[in-house]
């Protein structure tokens, strides 16, 4: 008897699902996503494509994404205007690309001497960062969510050793965001190029140095063909947060459930991209050394001090831009000291001692 009731209920459930399907189909939303990365780009590009696929998958098809890599619908650096205008519904990229529109966009990717990925995630999700991001994005008709992270990025690729601040004088380097402004203050000539244009400019000599991401991503860029000196962790991107920027009006048409699906997919990729980089960076760093003779270097303390002095000037100029820039910097710096201070006492203490005891370098 109980078994018959169960089977009858199951059949009714199946019928209900079948009857509901046409209604669900009518509610489908189209989501055109443009990206700042080339198609099938190891690391960043693959991450963006994975996020696009996951939004459709997690929504059970109710949100139908259509993904365009850089140059397929608009140029990489045209993504912001494409979405703000409503021509496309979303972009995936690094928000420090938009500092020409407002310098505070940098805080929602990474800033010099800023937050590592765990610190930035904590600030964005639980310590007021998202609210400040919403305020900034809202001024441009956008709604942005964290959707990826590279972890601490490399200091960059150089065609000569950087042993003093004098070595930065006149150096032609690709480096965007506030980090680029720091290098400019130290005498470098900086440009901001999309990822797909860096290699050709480095090989041709139009630039002499570039930062990109880390060993996993950088291995496939073949920068070692023109620059053999690869510097470990740089001042400019301790975290490297990535954004899903959506047209705010389109976001407003979504149901709460649809918004939660997009947020969940974004946060899933935020974790996945960081973990993937952590798993593969060491592997590809060794391959760069063994297979291509790359020389791994580290900036000395004098250069780090120069970075620090220039960064202080850049932050003051950023704050002077507007009241909102000041509030974003205030919020960021306060939480950096609160969250970072705790991390230094606990996680950093442990990691340093573990590395010493185990001789991890």
Characterization of this structure:
The chain has 361 residues and is of the alpha/beta class. It has a domain of 164 residues: 3-Layer(aba) Sandwich (D-Maltodextrin-Binding Protein, domain 2), CATH 3.40.190. It has twelve helices and eleven strands. The strands form two sheets. Strands 7-6-8-5-9-11 form a six-stranded mixed β-sheet, covered by helices on one side. Helix 2 runs antiparallel to helix 10. The radius of gyration is 23 Å and the shape is globular. The N and C termini lie far apart (69 Å). The N terminus is likely disordered.
Secondary-structure map with pairings?
Blueprint lengths: L1 H25 L2 E7 L8 H15 L4 E6 L10 H6 L5 E4 L23 H10 L2 H10 L3 E8 L4 E5 L13 E3 L2 H9 L3 E3 L3 H10 L4 E2 L4 H5 L9 E5 L7 E7 H5 L3 H37 L2 E3 L3 H19 L3 H36 L3
Parallel strand pairs: 1-2, 1-3, 6-7, 6-8, 9-11
Antiparallel strand pairs: 3-10, 4-10, 5-8, 5-9
SSE order, one letter for each helix or strand: HEHEHEHHEEEHEHEHEEHHEHH
- End-to-end distance: 69 Å
CATH fourth-tier homologous superfamily of the domain at 28-151 and 239-278: Bacterial extracellular solute-binding protein, family 7
Average pLDDT, all residues:
93
Task: Give the second-level CATH assignment, the architecture of the domain at 28-151 and 239-278.
Answer: 3-Layer(aba) Sandwich
Report the strand count: 11
Please report which band the strand proportion falls in: under 5%, 5-15%, 15-25%, 25-35%, 35-45% or over 45%.
Answer: 5-15%
Assign a percent range to the helix content.
40-55%
| CATH topology annotation of the domain at 28-151 and 239-278 | D-Maltodextrin-Binding Protein, domain 2
Shape: globular
- Give the spatial strand order of the biggest sheet: 7-6-8-5-9-11
Please summarize the sheet with the most strands. 6 strands, mixed
| Structural Rg | 23 Å
Low-confidence stretches: 1-25
> Structural class, please?
alpha/beta
CATH class of the domain at 28-151 and 239-278: Alpha Beta
What is the tally of helical segments? 12
């Amino acid at each position: 008897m109980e078994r018959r009731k169960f089977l009858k209920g199951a059949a009714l459930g199946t019928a209900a699902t079948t009857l509901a399907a046409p209604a669900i189909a009518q509610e489908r939303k189209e989501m055109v996503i443009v990206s700042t990365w080339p198609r099938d780009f190891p690391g960043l590009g693959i991450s963006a494509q994975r996020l696009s696929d996951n939004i459709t998958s997690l929504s059970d098809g109710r949100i139908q994404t259509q993904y365009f890599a850089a140059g397929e619908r608009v140029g990489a650096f045209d993504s912001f205007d494409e979405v703000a205008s409503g021509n496309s519904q979303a972009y995936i990229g690094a928000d420090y690309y938009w500092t020409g529109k407002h310098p505070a966009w940098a805080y929602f990717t990474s800033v010099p001497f800023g937050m590592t990925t765990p610190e930035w995630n904590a600030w964005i999700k639980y310590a007021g960062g998202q609210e400040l991001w919403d305020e900034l994005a809202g001024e441009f008709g956008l709604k942005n969510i964290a959707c990826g992270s590279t972890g601490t990025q490399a200091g960059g690729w150089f065609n000569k050793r950087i042993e003093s601040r004098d070595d930065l004088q006149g150096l032609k380097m690709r480096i965007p965001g506030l980090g680029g402004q720091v290098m400019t203050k130290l005498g470098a000539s900086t440009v901001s190029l999309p990822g797909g244009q860096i290699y050709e400019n480095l090989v041709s000599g139009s630039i002499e140095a570039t930062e990109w991401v880390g060993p996993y991503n950088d291995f496939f860029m073949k920068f070692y063909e023109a620059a053999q000196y690869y510097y470990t962790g740089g001042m400019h991107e301790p975290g490297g947060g990535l954004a899903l920027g959506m047209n705010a009006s389109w976001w407003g048409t979504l149901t709460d459930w649809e918004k939660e699906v997009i947020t969940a997919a974004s946060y899933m990729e935020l974790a996945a991209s960081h973990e993937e980089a952590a798993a593969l960076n060491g592997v590809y760093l060794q391959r760069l050394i063994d297979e291509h003779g790359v020389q791994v270097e580290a900036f000395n303390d004098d250069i780090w001090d120069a970075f620090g002095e220039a960064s202080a000037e850049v932050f003051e100029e950023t704050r002077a831009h507007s009241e909102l820039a000041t509030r974003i910097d205030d919020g960021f710096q306060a939480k950096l000291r609160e969250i970072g201070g705790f991390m230094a006492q606990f996680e950093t203490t442990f990691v340093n001692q573990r590395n010493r005891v185990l001789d991890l370098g």
